[in-house]
# Entry
Amino acid sequence: MKLELADEAATIALANAVYRALPANRAGWTLLLCGELGAGKSTFARAFIRAAGHEGPVPSPTYTLVEPYALASGFIYHIDLYRVSSEDELYFLGFDELDEGCCLVEWPERAPGLLATADLKIELSFESTGRSARIIAISERGSALIQKIN
Ligand SMILES: Nc1ncnc2c1ncn2[C@@H]1O[C@H](COP(=O)(O)OP(=O)(O)OP(=O)(O)O)[C@@H](O)[C@H]1O
Ligand SMILES: [Mg+2]
# Structure
């Protein structure tokens, strides 16, 4: 599925639509956010986290690697692997313990192992003044989710 995102508002609208398409229990769902520097990955993540009911700031996890959000609607983990150079560095993150929440992962290319367990990949690209998004299902439930995005 490919979409044109003419401006930032369109990226936010896509994040809202993906959020709405997910089941109420998002535990264990993993969404990968791909794209060059500035493609809009954090914009998407911020909008998604706000759609889930978070009202405060959404700081970049570039240095902390993971920012957890304990929300009434469940946990969301915002992850940014930009500074990770090898998958070995991820052990201390306790990725196994993230199952209880929904994971949004920027720069998932740094941890190719994630690809196998993720549900959806959202690839953001530069397109003149805006962006485009390709939404790719990884899991079967991810494929069902794409049908529900509107
Ligand atoms: N569809 C869009 N059209 C035009 N600009 C957009 C669009 N979506 C987001 N932007 C803008 O792109 C800029 C960079 O966005 P953002 O920080 O989300 O990128 P990023 O992919 O997270 O970058 P990084 O890899 O550095 O973390 C922001 O100023 C944002 O407003
Ligand atoms: Mg970012």
